[in-house]
Structure to design on (354 residues):
């Protein structure tokens, strides 16, 4: 049965290893509700506190204050091995001297199951993990991706209520990472296990999550679906961490409209008329035309990136914008120095709060 996970006002302060008497505030007042069967990623740059938050949920780190609940049960004082949670690590932590099968059943052996039960549970998990034909191999006869599958199989064979992933794909090459991401998401959804997944890779977070928790310097900056955090970032930090963005400054014209250097754009804001607001303008949400558009611009740089052409354009009074144009192969590239027109797509504009 999947379980909900509630984090309530969770804090973690470490004694600073560098400055005696000082503290590192690794996690600040974190609040989060993960619903049963949901996959939530903790995303942020190195040092933002995501691993510390995950380790507190696992029970490897004691919170300074606040509560962790699985379902209705407070977990703060429950030992890690009694939390019904299993963790999948970056280093696979599989035993090199044991076969794939013995690695998978390792934790189950401590549960005093009959041999038949043990085998039935292991066979089922080996099958869903695509490892049946490799059960008797030793780990050094497996690829990195297969080893990570063993680590995952070893976690899910315990039938945990909560599955915790600590950057599980960091050691794999880019192609394998893409493939394993799909496998992990597929398996997690089929089994319906509530999961928390730590990563610093925004593409990984976007591709596997029901919701993303974006963290910065110990704070949760935003919690939302991949679509929400991309289209409606709560802060400049979130907008820049999840993709690329331009941040032109506009003036509030009325509750539904802003004025961007004389061009009225439909952007709802809560500010007063005349207030300055920062817009988030994604590079792919700007159309370029040789003949007409909202802003006259000059191409400063043109780069062919295969699926898109990435331009840096300059607009008088508004500075430089990044613009992505899809399928550049069909159209050919614009030349630096060329005069063009740029128009933001109205539907994808968003204003940052205050
Ligand atoms: P990374 O992606 O690099 O693993 P992270 O976002 O997971 O980073 P944490 O490992 O949670 O970050 O660390 C958060 C902060 O807490 C950092 O400033 C780190 O140096 C500090 N920290 C973590 N563990 C300890 C510890 N045992 N003692 C002191 N400070 C710690």
């Amino acid at each position: 049965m999947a379980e909900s996970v509630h984090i309530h006002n969770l804090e973690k302060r470490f004694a600073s290893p560098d400055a005696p008497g000082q503290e590192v505030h690794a996690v600040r007042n974190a609040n989060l509700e993960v619903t049963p069967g949901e996959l939530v990623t903790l995303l942020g740059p190195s040092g933002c506190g995501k691993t510390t938050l995950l380790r507190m949920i696992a029970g490897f780190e004691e919170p300074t204050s606040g509560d962790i609940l699985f379902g209705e049960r407070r977990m703060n004082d429950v030992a890690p091995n009694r939390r019904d949670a299993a963790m999948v690590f970056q280093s696979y932590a599989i035993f090199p001297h044991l076969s794939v099968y013995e690695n998978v059943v390792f934790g189950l052996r401590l549960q005093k199951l009959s041999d038949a039960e043990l085998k039935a549970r292991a066979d089922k998990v080996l099958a869903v993990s695509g490892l049946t034909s490799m059960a008797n191999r030793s780990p050094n006869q497996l690829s990195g991706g297969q080893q990570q599958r063993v680590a995952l199989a070893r976690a899910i064979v315990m039938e945990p209520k909560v599955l915790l992933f600590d950057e599980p794909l960091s050691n794999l090459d880019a192609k394998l990472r893409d493939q394993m991401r799909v496998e992990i998401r597929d398996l997690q959804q089929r089994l319906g296990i509530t999961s928390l997944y730590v990563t610093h890779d925004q593409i990984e977070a976007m591709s596997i999550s029901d919701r993303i928790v974006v963290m910065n310097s110990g704070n949760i900056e935003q919690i939302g679906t991949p679509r929400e955090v991309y289209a409606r970032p709560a802060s400049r930090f979130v907008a820049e961490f999840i993709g690329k963005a331009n941040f032109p400054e506009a003036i509030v014209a009325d509750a539904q409209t802003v004025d961007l250097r004389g061009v009225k754009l439909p952007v709802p804001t809560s500010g007063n008329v005349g207030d300055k607001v920062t817009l988030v303008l994604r590079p792919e949400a700007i159309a370029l035309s040789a003949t007409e558009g909202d802003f006259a611009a000059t191409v400063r740089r043109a780069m062919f990136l295969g699926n898109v052409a990435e331009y840096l354009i300059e607009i008088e009074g508004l500075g430089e914008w990044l613009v992505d144009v899809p399928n550049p192969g069909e159209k050919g590239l614009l030349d630096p120095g060329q005069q063009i027109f740029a128009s933001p797509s109205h539907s994808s504009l968003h204003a940052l709060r205050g």
Remarks:
- Residues 14, 17, 24, 26, 44, 46-52, 200 surround adenosine-5'-triphosphate (CB under 6 Å).
- The domain at 5-241 is CATH 3.40.50.300 (Rossmann fold).
- The chain has a mean pLDDT of 92.
- The longest strand covers residues 23-34.
